[in-house]
Structure formats: C-alpha cells, structure tokens
C-alpha cells in the first residue's frame, strides 16, 4: 500500500510479513484493525503535542494550530472510511487472489523439491560418520561434568567479574582530582563560581537560570569536557503552574550544541555560560510576555497595553491607559503616557534584565522600584504594582503640598501601602473621621474615601482629579457632617431618636428659625413631646466646631416622626412650643464650674434677638467621637422632666411639695412632700395620728431602661413591736414602686403621655396611701388592746412583722400558724385580704384554709383584729381535727359503681360553723364554741323546722347517743341530763296551760319591756372577741335569729309575747329590763321544767350560746335578747359595753318556730301554745306551774339538739384509731370513730334496701330502735350496732325453730365473724353488703359450702398450698362482665361468684395471685370455672391473660369428670375448691 499523505506529514504503511502459509499477496498487506490502531495513536500523539505547545503561543497562532490539526485529522479519517467501504465490496478480488496464491505455492513446492534433490547429490558424497569422542563421554558419565569445553566459548559467554567497591571509590577520587586540576589550570567565568565536585563529575549552578553537569574521560590535558546533563531553573510562578518551561527536545538540542562547542572551542566554559545565560534571559522575557498577555485578558484589561516585544531583546508595556481614554473622549489635553521597558543590558550581557521607566521616577520617593528583574521572582504584575505605587505616591504628595499651601497647620500625612493621604477634618480626629485619598492602581485616578459622607464622594472625586482648590472647600464643609455624626454616635445607646428635619407649623415665626441651618433634633423617647436641639457653628480655626444646645417642647403632637434617612415629606406638621437654651455648666456638680477636661466660653442670654453664641472646644485628650455635654444634657432632661411633671401633678391635686431637690452628695434627685394627701372615709383621729407618725414622703425615679417610680414613706413611733430583726429600728421605711408605663386606654399623643403616666402613678400612690391608713386604723385599735395587760392578747398571738402595708401574726400551739392581713385596693374601694400559712417545715397546711373566705368576709365586716385572733385561736383545735378526716373517693356505691364518691366533704358555712357531709348522705353541723367546746348536731334537719329534712341529706340515726359517749366532765357539767335531749318535751297535752299562758301574755302586752337603743359598732372600733356569756342559760338554748336585725334598729318594740313565738325559751328576768345588763340570777327555765324535768341551766357554770334551733319548736317563747339577756362576751378580754357576738349575724341559724310573723322569720300566725301552760309573761314574775314529770319516748329529731364536746373529745372523735375490741383484719383499719359510726349507720341503712330488693330475704318487725331483724329459709338474723361503742355493726344468726338441726353453732359463728370482719368493715362498701345478702339467699346446701369457704378465709389451713379470699365485689383484674365494684355474687338458675387465690409463703404478684370466677350449676351439681372469653371479646375489657387461670379451669374440669356420681346430692363447691387449693401447682 502506498503511503498516505496527510497535510504536512505522511503516514507510511509498513509492510508486515505474515507468518505461516497464506495467499501470495499477503506479504505486502496489513490488517484493518492494526491500521485503525495506528491512526488513533497518531491522532493522540498530535493532540498531546498540541496541548503542550499551545499555552506558549499567541491567540492567533493557537487558533491556526487547532484548525490545522482538525483539518488534518479529518482528512485522515475520511480516507480510512473510504478504505473500509472498499474492503466490504472486494470479495471477488479476494477469491482471485487466493487462487493465484495457491498456484504460486504449488509452483514453489516443485522448485524446492528439485533444489533439494540437487543438494543431496552434492553433499552426500562428503557425509561420513566421525569417530566417537570417548574421553568426553567418560567424563560426562563418571563425573557428570564437561571439563574439556574450549576457553574461547567461556570468554565469549561469561562476563568478567566487576570491580570491587574499594576500586570504584579509588577511581572516583582520582577522577575528582583530575577535574580539580583541570578547573585550576583553565580559565573559569566568575558566574560559574558556584560549583560542586563529587562522584567524578562537576556541577555548575547559576541561581534561577541553569544547572550543568560535566566530567572528564581521562587525565590528559587534551581530553575535552564531556557534558552529562543540563537543567533549566527558570520558573513561571504566576502562570506556569509548576510545569517545565523547556521541552525535552529543546534540552537535547541545547545539549548537543554545547557539547559540540566544548570539543572545538579554546574557552569551552565561557561558551557554556554565554550560551545558557542568553537562552535563560530569552526565556525570562518570554515568561514576562506571557504574564503580560494574561494580565490583559484577566485582571488589568485595557488599563495596560503591550507596546512592543522583541524576542530575546526587550519588552515594553504602557499603563494608566484610562487617563488617555478619558482625555480623548472629553477632547482634553492628552496626558503623559506611562511606560516601562524590560530589556537586556546594552554593554554587559551577563547582567540581569534591566527595567526602564518613562517618564523617569523621582529619586526621593519612599516607594522603591527595582531597576532590574530579579530572577528569583518573575512577576510582571508585581513590577506593575510597584511602579504604580510609586506614581501614586508622587500624585498624593503633590496634592498634600497644595493643601498645606492653603492651611499651614495642616497635619495630613501619607502612609501605608498602597499609599494613602489622610486628611483630618475636625480636631481631634479619630481614625474613622479622616478623609482618605488613594490612587487607583489600574487607572491612576485619585479616589476619596470618607466614612461619614457617602453622598459627597462622587463630587469630591471629580474635583480632586480636575481642580484641587474645590477639594479644600469641601473639606471645610465636612466638619458639620462629622459634628452631626458625633452627636448621633453619642446618643446611639441613649433613649433618644435623631432627626435632621422637623416639620413645624409655626417654624417661620418661632425663634427656632433663627438658628443655624446645621443642627439636629434629638427626640427624647421617654418624653416624646421634648426635643434637644444641637446647633453647629463654625469655629475660629479651620478644624473647629462650636456647639449650642436648646430644649424644644412640642404642643399636641400626634404624628409619627421619621428617623434620619427616611422620607419625612408625608409627615403631618406639629406645633412648636417653648424653646429654652441650655448650658451644660449649670447642670454640673458645682454650679458655675465646667466639667474637667472641657474648655467652655459661656454666655447665655434670653431675649427676642435670640441667644448669644456659646462655643465649645474639646481638648485633644478627650475622645472625639463622644460629646459628653450632649450625653449629660440628655441624662439631665430624662431625669428631671418626669420629676417636674410630678410636681405639676401634685400641684393640681393640692399637695404641696419642695420641688426637685438633690439628695445627699448629688447621688440622686427626689421630690419631697410638705404635707400628706387627705384621706376620705378614715376617722379624724386616725388621720391625725398617722400624719404625726409620718416623718416624710419622697418620690424618686429609678432605672434607665425600665423607669420605675419609688415612693418612700418614713414612719416613727410604730404602734406594734414585731419580732423581725429589721423592724427593730426607731423609724420604719415603707417603699412603693410603680411602673412608669402608660395605660393602654391612654392616647399616644406626646403631651398626654407624660401626664397620663404621672396621673397613673399618683392614682396608685393614693390607693397605697389609703391602704396604709386602713391598715393603720385597724392596727391602732389592736395595738391598744394588745398592750393592755388585762386582756392578755400577747399570750394568744405574736406579732411577726408589721410593715404598714401588711401585718403578720403567728398564733396557735408553738406559734406555728400565721395569718397575714393586708388591704388590697379594688374597684369598690378595696377590702382586707387574709393569707394563711405555717412557720417552719410542717407537713400539714394551715387548718383555717378551709374557712379562709369566711374569715375574710367576717373580718371585712368588723375590722377587729382581736376578734379575728379570738376566732382563730378558739377554732384552731376543732379545725385541725376536721382536716384529718379522709377526703378520698371510693367506688362501689349503690347504683353508681363507677362513679367515685367522696368519703368526707367539708362545707364551711362561717368561721366557726362547718358542715361535714359523709358520702353525700349524712351531714353534721359543727359549731366551734368558746371555752374549748364544740357543738355538734345533725345537719340533715332543717334550721326552721326539725320535722323537715334538708333535701339531699338523711338524718343519722343514733347520732345523739354516739356523741354522748365522747362527752367529758367539762362538757357534761354544762348539761342538765342526757335524757333531756333524747327525750324532748312533747307539745301534746298542753291544753291545761292555755289559761295560765294567756294571763302572762296579757300582762306582757301591757307591761312589756322596751329594750334600750343599741349602738352600731364602728368600723374602726375593735369588736370584742368571742367570749361565752356569764348568764345561767340553758346550753341547748340558741340565740335569737334576729340579733343582727335588732342591732341595726334604734329601739326595740314591745316584746312579741305569743304573737312572735321564738326558738329560745324565755328567761324570766323582770328585774333587768335593760337588754345590755347581764343576768346573774333567775335562771332561764328549760322546756323540760314545765314537766318537772331539771334544766341544764340549774348548773352555775356559764355556757356560750349555740346558734341552733331549740327542740321545743312547739313551745314558742321570746328570744333572750327580748328578755333582757345580754348575749355579748365576757368582760374578761374586752370592753364591757357589750357589742354583739363576733360570729357573723347573717350566718346565725334562725328559729325553727312554725308560726312566727317576726320580721325575717318564716312562720304562720296562730295561737301560742304558751297560753296553755299558764306560764307568766316575761317581766311579771318568775313563778311558773310545773306539771308532773313523765318519761318521754325518744324522738327521731333528737340529734338536731347540739351536743357539746370539748376539744380533746372532738379530737378523739376525729383521730384515726383502731376500733375497740378488734385485733386484726380489715376491720382493724385505722379510721376515726366518726367514720366507723357513720359507716356502720350507712351499711345498716343499705342493709334494709338489700332486704327489700331480695325476694328470699324477709324483714321482721322490731320494737328496738336501730335493730334490723330478717330471716331466710332456715336462719333468723339480727343486725345492730355494738351498744357499748356504736362503732361496729354485728350480725347474730340463729336457726329457725323448724330448722334447729340443720345448722351447727360453729357454722353460724363463722357466718357472723365473716359478716363482722369482712363485710361491714372499712371502707364500708355498700355493694359488699349486697353481695353478702345475695349469698344468704342461696340454697341451704350451697350456703353451707360457702360457709366452709368463709372458714378457710378466716382460719387458713396451713396444709393447703393456696390461701382463699372471697371477692364480694368485682376486682379491677376480675371479670369484664361488669364494671369493677359491682357485687360479685349472682344467683339465678346458676350461681356465679368470685374468689381470689394467693400462693402461701409468697408475696402477692401476678404469678402468685389469680382471680377465679366460679360457676355452679345446681341442676347438674357441677362446679367449674366460668368461661368469660366470649363476653370479654364482646366488651373489649378483658383482663390480661394469666397462665394460672387456664390451669385452674383444667383442674376443675378434671375434678368434675373424676368425681362425677361420687358426691351424690352433696354440693360440689367446697370439695372442688378445696381440691384446687391442695393440688394446684403452677408450672
């Protein structure tokens, strides 16, 4: 195949001979795959060479080379494509070629055969067999070697032994000596002085140019130097990317050229240096040229230009081209063109490249520029930067000289790299206040930089580059800009907002228009209606500014002002008010002296012509960015403006003050009041005493960010001495703080905001001042009684703290309880608030928390601290006992098994009256009496008619008898007899006394006493504490229900007699018609005296009145108040004037009389039963007729009569304790006796409902109260409370006469014990009793087996593995058939009950406890486990699966199958369960 021409080169197709037989023409062919491979390798090689050479060519040369490469490669692949297409259609040619080749091969075989035959004829003649080599054969066979081989063969094949290291070292040392000798004896260039001789060679190195290695081949002088290697050290660190700058082919060419010169020249080393040095300098110029082109294309663009480049000689570049372009565009004078030229030295070629500048650079410039190119750093950009920096310094120096010519005191300086001209604007000048002028490195234009004048930069730049004189004038104008910025910087963190303009309606006519145009307005954010105006004036010197300050007040401003930088054209104008010029010196610590470090010239005058000039010059040592006078004036205005507004507000309220005064050593400002505000509704003597004790009142304003007003009141002669250490001083300081924020309802106008804040503060202060007066009035009376040794209040209470705002008292045992009294202002004038707490670490809360609201309401009525303390001390013990009652909730109540019911609910009625509800069914009224007594009655009875029951409650049967068990000697001494309460008089049979009572009524109507007017107690006069009366009245006699009404009236009317039947029996006191006089004789007869029954009033000991209805509702009588009986307290503590009882009048129980037209008493008019008994009218005489006494039956409403208990007995009643006579079990659960009694009554009441609901239970009539008799088929039952304790409920079972032999006494005893200890025991669940009642309805055989199971529970058999317990209610983990708490016994056609099995000797857990539902079928006599899986799936409330449940079911089924027919007619419940207890073994 002919060679293929490809552009400038040709591809020679080498003929590759094929191995083996083939067609005749195959020797000159080539495979197509190899041809494609050759073409691809050729293209890749050209592409590689092109990538290495292109970076060093110009842009046009690169483009030409790329186009040529693409054209050449395209032509080559086009020919290859044509060849491939031709080869696909050459099948016939190939077949002919194969035939021709086969024929040629056959012809060649014939020729070869003839030649072989001819050669055999010629050579066989000389072919003879040589003699055998016996010696060599013997050597090989015997020794295994061939020692007779000729040495010429060994010398040609085996190489000689190498020389030893010692010989090599000696040779190299000798060669080094020869090289040293040659260098000494020959002429050596000085640039090649850096040489190294080692290992038989010498290395010459010229820094950053080249490195050459030579050696000698012998020691003769005529032997030339042999060049071993060349290394070019020129680098391009900017654009070279670390690659070599010289191709290896070029290095080889230079190597051959230098070697040829070393053979032929007389001075070979000089030629070596000259040749390499010239090449390196040319290479450096090429590098600089390449960097210049890259700078033009990348960073410098048109700012530089490549003027001329001569390869190997010079390079010229011009810069700052922008000035030329601008001059050409504006048709101005063309400036000088700046150039730099890099060329070889004209005279000495050995010197480095030289740099020349046009025009020449000044020699005195501090920015030095290299005059020669350093080979270690070839950087065109660095050379340009150095050059333009030197040029920039020259331009800045020229501008500096022009400024100094205008201002001799100029302190501008040129510093930094690149050079910067710093021009101070205002002395002293900080770093950010200089105007910096720099020269742009690329354009050469001067550019100003000023931090505070961004808007002037463009104009300044034009002036600097065109006319320098305008620059000087602009520098003068920048002084005001800096002054304004300094002012803004000073107030940056102060509560102000800076404004450059302020739209005022009266600007032209206001004095503010006469101020300078250079000024700023500083709006005080805390006082929006005030502005501090800072005016700037030119100083005497070029770099000075004078400041002037004014305070501007706006009128009715209601617009939003724009901050600086925002558009304020749309802002609504406001009206300017007063303008006052301020002098900072007048506000300094000493008037007339300036602040140290500040020089001022002060002359302030007010007039129509405007204020005079005030100038200020700041010393150089003061921080220039901070204006102390501005900050000082803002602080003064911010502090004094609110105080001045306060003084104005005080003047409007008529409160004189001293104005704003400095306190101490100028530590603060305050406003002192000359007189305290007046008080309304406070007695004059209290106001006079309070003002005389108050030493002064001062208002202060504290805080910076959040302003807080503080009012300090100083008092002396404190009325109470507390135990607090900080209150032991002679004077007391009381502080009030008020937030200065305005209310939300106030408008946002500037004038109203400040006034609204001050008004709000003063309103709060007036409320606090009134609170102090209220507290002081109350404490003043208390202090007088507290200090009285006869009243002994100090033994009952201790003053913990008295701060005039609140009073803290400790009382009770160990002074562990505290009460805080404080007046809290409100919308209706305010009221006292009581706070209760404990002292120290105690677990129980304050017992009075339950009656806190009642105590607070009563105290706000009487305002008597002594009375409050009396109530707290007398009710503490009962309330502590009451709060011990459990208030937990229980489940399992009838009809509501899922609804929790609270055990005890405490319902406070007043401070001394508490109702206690038991399970929302029973109710007790507890009245705290004086002298450690508590009165308890059944709260289910109505207060007006004991024959009626309060809706929602049920009377508690036997309550009177139960409470009488806890009476001690103290309470018993106040009762006449216990039978009087349980057997009250009956109104039947009183007709005989009609005539007697009528006579007394007539006499009473004619001679009835009219009580004297009674004085209403003052709100600020102390009410007497609760003290029992000294009269010999019946302890069960309640007070009149109309005491509060009578106390408010001015005079009493005629005694009502029979027309007004009252609850209390009359006390015949004709000797004392005055209601205010206490009665010490003529005891009040009890209703029982009419029938010969002695009254408790026969005892001489006094008893406090009980505000509960009297049982004699059928015997109307006048109240003790109408009879002249004084119900007030004993004079042992308080004033004997006799104020009403401390108990709230509104909470007093009214009379239960059925006919009573007395005001406020619900009754029906009718004849008085008193007339039937012939009782004398009050005031006529004390004699009365007594019919013969008789034994009265017990009445159901006996418990409505209060029972008196001492505090100790009441605590015993409420304290949890084990029941008497019970050793253990659930019945020994700790609960109070009251809970056990009410629980038993509750269970007894529920038992009657159970009997009525079960058909098999039959109720029997009973003549004994409180005893329930009923029977089942074969057993009679008797249920009653334990008569000795009334705290346990017992069951007595006896067989019926016809079934005496069916039951043994042991079985009945087990049933009784189970009822006592497992059924009616805490927590007294009604459904438990329901389940027990259902169990009694079971057939006799079933009941007998159930009793045996009860025996196993009461007396466990230790031989069994499991302990059994009855589940009378469904437990939480029991059956999902019914909710938890439901009765767990169901008796229908089948019997279902639940038992719980617990493994003996193991703690209760899920694996040791299982609840088993037992289902007994009487028809088949089978006992098995109830299958509740289907029901569980339907209800979705199944308990978690237990492995024991499945085992129990399997055992019961297995036992039923084994014992089928063996039990006969006997019930299988007990045998099956006993077998289960004995044989169940969990796996």
Automatic annotation (TrEMBL):
Mediator of RNA polymerase II transcription subunit 14 C-terminal domain segment(s): 1336-1480
Residue span, Mediator of RNA polymerase II transcription subunit 14 RM8 domain: 1247-1320
Chief place of localization: nucleus
Residue ranges, annotated region (Disordered): 1-25, 973-992, 999-1187
Biased composition (Low complexity): 1093-1122
InterPro entries, per database record: Med14_C, Med14_N, Med14_RM2, Med14_RM6, Med14_RM8, Mediator_Med14, RM3_Med14, RM5_Med14
Subcellular location: Nucleus
Domain annotation Mediator of RNA polymerase II transcription subunit 14 RM5: ranges: 655-742
Biased composition (Polar residues): 7-16, 999-1018, 1029-1057
Family the UniProt entry places it in: Belongs to the Mediator complex subunit 14 family.
Subunit structure, as described in the record: Component of the Mediator complex.
Described function: Component of the Mediator complex, a coactivator involved in the regulated transcription of nearly all RNA polymerase II-dependent genes. Mediator functions as a bridge to convey information from gene-specific regulatory proteins to the basal RNA polymerase II transcription machinery. Mediator is recruited to promoters by direct interactions with regulatory proteins and serves as a scaffold for the assembly of a functional preinitiation complex with RNA polymerase II and the general transcription factors.
Name of the protein in question: Mediator of RNA polymerase II transcription subunit 14
């Amino acid at each position: 195949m002919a060679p293929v021409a490809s552009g400038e080169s040709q591809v020679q197709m080498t003929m590759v001979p094929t191995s083996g037989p083939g067609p005749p023409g195959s020797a000159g062919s080539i495979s197509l795959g190899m041809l494609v491979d050759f073409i691809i390798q050729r293209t890749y090689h050209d592409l590689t060479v092109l990538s290495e050479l292109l970076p060093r060519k110009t842009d046009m040369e690169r483009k030409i080379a790329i186009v040529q490469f693409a054209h050449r490669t395209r032509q080559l692949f086009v020919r290859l494509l044509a060849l491939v297409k031709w080869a696909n259609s050459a099948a016939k040619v190939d077949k002919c070629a194969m035939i021709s080749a086969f024929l040629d091969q056959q012809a060649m075989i014939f020729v070869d055969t003839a030649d072989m035959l001819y050669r055999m004829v010629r050579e066989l003649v000389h072919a003879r067999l040589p003699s055998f080599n016996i010696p060599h054969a013997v050597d090989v066979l015997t020794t295994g070697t061939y020692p007779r081989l000729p040495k010429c063969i060994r010398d040609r094949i085996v190489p000689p032994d190498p020389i030893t290291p010692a010989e090599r070292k000696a040779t190299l040392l000798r060669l080094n000596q020869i090289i040293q000798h040659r260098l000494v004896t020959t002429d050596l260039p000085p640039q090649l002085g850096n040489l190294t001789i080692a290992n038989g060679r010498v290395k010459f190195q010229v820094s950053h140019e080249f490195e050459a290695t030579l050696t000698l081949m012998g020691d003769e002088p005529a032997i030339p130097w042999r060049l071993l290697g060349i290394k070019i050290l020129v680098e391009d660190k900017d654009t070279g990317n670390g690659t070599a700058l010289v191709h290896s082919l070029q290095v080889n060419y230079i190597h051959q050229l230098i070697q040829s010169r070393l053979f032929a020249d007389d001075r070979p080393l000089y030629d070596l240096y000259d040749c390499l040095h010239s090449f390196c300098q040319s290479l450096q110029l090429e590098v600089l040229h390449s960097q210049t082109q890259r700078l033009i294309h990348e960073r410098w663009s048109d700012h530089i230009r490549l003027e001329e480049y001569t390869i190997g000689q010079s390079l010229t570049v011009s810069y700052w081209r922008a000035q030329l372009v601008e001059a050409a565009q504006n048709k101005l004078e063309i400036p000088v063109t700046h150039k730099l030229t890099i060329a070889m030295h004209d005279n000495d070629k050995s010197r480095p490249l030289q740099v020349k500048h046009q025009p020449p650079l000044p020699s005195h410039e501090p920015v030095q520029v290299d005059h020669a190119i350093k080979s270690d750093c070839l950087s065109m950009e660095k050379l340009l930067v150095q050059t333009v920096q030197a040029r920039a310094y020259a331009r800045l120096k020229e501008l500096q000289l022009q400024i100094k010519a205008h201002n001799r005191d100029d302190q501008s300086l040129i510093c930094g790299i690149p050079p910067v001209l710093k021009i101070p604007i205002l002395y002293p000048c900080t770093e950010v206040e200089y105007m910096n002028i720099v020269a742009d490195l690329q354009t050469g234009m001067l550019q100003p930089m000023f931090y505070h004048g961004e808007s002037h930069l463009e104009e300044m730049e034009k002036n600097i580059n065109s006319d320098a004189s305008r620059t000087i004038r602009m520098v003068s104008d920048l002084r005001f800009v800096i002054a304004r910025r300094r002012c803004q910087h000073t107030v940056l963190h102060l509560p102000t907002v800076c404004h450059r303009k302020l739209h005022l309606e009266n600007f032209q006519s206001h004095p503010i228009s006469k101020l300078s145009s250079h000024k700023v307005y500083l709006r005080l954010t805390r006082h929006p209606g005030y502005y501090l105006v800072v005016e700037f004036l030119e100083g005497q010197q070029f770099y000075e500014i004078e400041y002037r300050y004014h305070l501007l007040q706006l009128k009715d401003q209601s617009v939003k002002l724009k901050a600086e930088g925002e558009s304020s054209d749309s802002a609504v104008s406001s009206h300017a008010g007063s303008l006052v010029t301020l002098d900072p010196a007048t506000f300094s610590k000493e008037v007339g002296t300036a602040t140290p470090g500040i020089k001022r010239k002060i002359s302030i005058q007010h007039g129509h012509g405007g204020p005079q000039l005030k100038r200020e010059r700041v010393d150089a040592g003061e921080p220039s960015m901070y204006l102390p006078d501005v900050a000082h004036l803002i602080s003064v205005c911010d502090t004094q403006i609110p105080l001045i507004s306060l003084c104005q507000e005080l003047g409007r309220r008529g409160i004189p003050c001293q104005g704003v005064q400095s306190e101490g050593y100028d530590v603060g400002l305050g406003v002192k009041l000359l007189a305290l505000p007046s008080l309304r509704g406070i007695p004059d003597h209290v106001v006079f005493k309070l003002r005389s004790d108050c030493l002064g009142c001062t208002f202060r304003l504290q805080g910076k960010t959040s302003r807080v007003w503080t009012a300090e009141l100083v008092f002396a002669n404190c009325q109470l001495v507390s135990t607090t250490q900080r209150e032991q001083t002679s004077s007391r300081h009381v502080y009030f703080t008020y937030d200065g924020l305005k209310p939300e309802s106030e408008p946002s106008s500037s004038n109203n905001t400040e006034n609204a804040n001050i008004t709000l503060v003063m309103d709060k202060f007036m409320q606090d001042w009134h609170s102090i007066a209220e507290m002081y009035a109350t404490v003043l009376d208390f202090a007088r009684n507290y200090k009285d040794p006869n009243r002994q209040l100090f033994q009952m209470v201790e003053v913990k703290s008295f701060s005039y705002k609140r009073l803290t008292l400790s009382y009770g045992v160990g002074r562990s309880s505290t009460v805080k009294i404080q007046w809290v202002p409100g919308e209706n004038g305010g009221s006292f608030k009581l706070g209760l707490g404990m002292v120290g670490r105690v677990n129980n809360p304050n017992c009075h928390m339950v009656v806190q609201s009642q105590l607070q309401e009563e105290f706000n009525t009487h305002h008597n601290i002594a009375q409050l303390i009396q109530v707290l001390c007398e009710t503490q013990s009962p309330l502590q006992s009451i709060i011990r009652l459990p208030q937990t909730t229980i489940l399992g109540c009838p009809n509501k098994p899922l609804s929790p019911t609270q055990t005890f609910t405490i319902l406070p009625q007043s401070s001394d009256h508490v109702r206690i509800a038991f399970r929302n069914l029973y109710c007790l009224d507890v009245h705290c009496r004086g002298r450690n007594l508590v009165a308890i009655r059944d709260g289910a009875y109505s207060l007006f008619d004991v024959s009626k029951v309060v809706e929602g409650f049920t009377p508690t049967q036997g309550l009177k008898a139960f409470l009488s068990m806890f009476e001690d000697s103290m309470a018993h001494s106040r009762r006449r007899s216990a039978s009087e309460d349980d057997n009250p008089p009956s109104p039947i049979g009183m007709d005989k006394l009609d005539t007697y009572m009528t006579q007394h009524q007539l006499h009473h109507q004619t001679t009835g006493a009219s009580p004297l007017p009674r004085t209403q107690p003052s709100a600020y006069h102390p009410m007497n504490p609760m003290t029992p009366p000294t009269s010999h009245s019946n302890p069960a006699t309640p007070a009149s229900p109309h005491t509060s009404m009578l106390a408010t009236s001015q005079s009493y009317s005629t005694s009502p007699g029979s027309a007004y039947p009252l609850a209390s029996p009359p006390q015949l006191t004709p000797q004392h018609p005055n209601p205010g006089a206490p009665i010490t004789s003529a005891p009040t007869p009890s209703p029982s005296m009419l029938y010969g029954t002695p009254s408790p009033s026969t005892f001489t000991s006094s008893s406090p009145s009980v505000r509960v209805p009297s049982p004699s509702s059928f015997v109307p009588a006048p109240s003790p108040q109408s009879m002249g009986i004084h119900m007030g307290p004993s004079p042992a503590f308080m004033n004997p004037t006799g104020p009403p009882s401390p108990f709230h009048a509104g909470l007093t129980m009214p009379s239960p009389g059925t006919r009573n037209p007395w005001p406020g008493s619900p009754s029906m008019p009718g004849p008085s039963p008193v007339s039937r008994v012939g009782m004398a009218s009050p005031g006529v005489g004390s004699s009365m007729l007594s019919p013969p006494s008789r034994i009265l039956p017990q009445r159901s409403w006996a418990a409505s009569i209060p029972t008196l208990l001492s505090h100790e007995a009441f605590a015993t009643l409420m304290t949890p304790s084990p029941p008497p006579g019970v050793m253990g079990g659930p019945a020994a659960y700790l609960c109070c006796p009251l809970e056990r009694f009410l629980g038993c009554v509750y269970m007894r009441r529920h038992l009657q409902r159970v009997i009525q609901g079960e058909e098999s239970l039959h109720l029997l009539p009973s003549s004994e109260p409180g005893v329930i008799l009923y029977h089942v088929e074969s057993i009679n039952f008797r249920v009653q409370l334990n008569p000795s304790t009334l705290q346990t409920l017992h069951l007595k079972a006896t067989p019926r006469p016809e079934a005496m032999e069916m039951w043994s006494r042991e079985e009945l005893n087990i049933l009784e014990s189970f009822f006592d200890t497992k059924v009616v025991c805490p927590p007294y669940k009604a459904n438990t009793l329901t389940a027990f009642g259902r169990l009694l309805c079971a057939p006799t055989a079933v009941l007998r087996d159930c009793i045996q199971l009860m025996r196993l529970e009461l007396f466990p058999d230790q031989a069994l593995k499991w302990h059994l317990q009855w589940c009378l209610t469904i437990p939480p983990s029991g059956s999902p058939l019914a909710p938890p708490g439901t009765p767990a016994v169901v008796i229908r056609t089948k019997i279902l009950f639940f038992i719980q099995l617990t493994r003996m000797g193991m703690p209760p857990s899920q694996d040791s406890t299982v609840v088993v539902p037992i289902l007994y079928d009487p028809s088949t006599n089978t006992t098995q486990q109830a299958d509740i899986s289907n029901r569980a799936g339907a209800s979705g409330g199944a308990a978690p699966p237990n492995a024991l449940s499945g085992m129990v079911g399997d055992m019961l089924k297995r036992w039923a199958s084994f014992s089928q027919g063996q039990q006969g007619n006997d019930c299988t419940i007990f045998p099956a369960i006993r077998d289960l207890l004995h044989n169940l073994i969990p796996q």
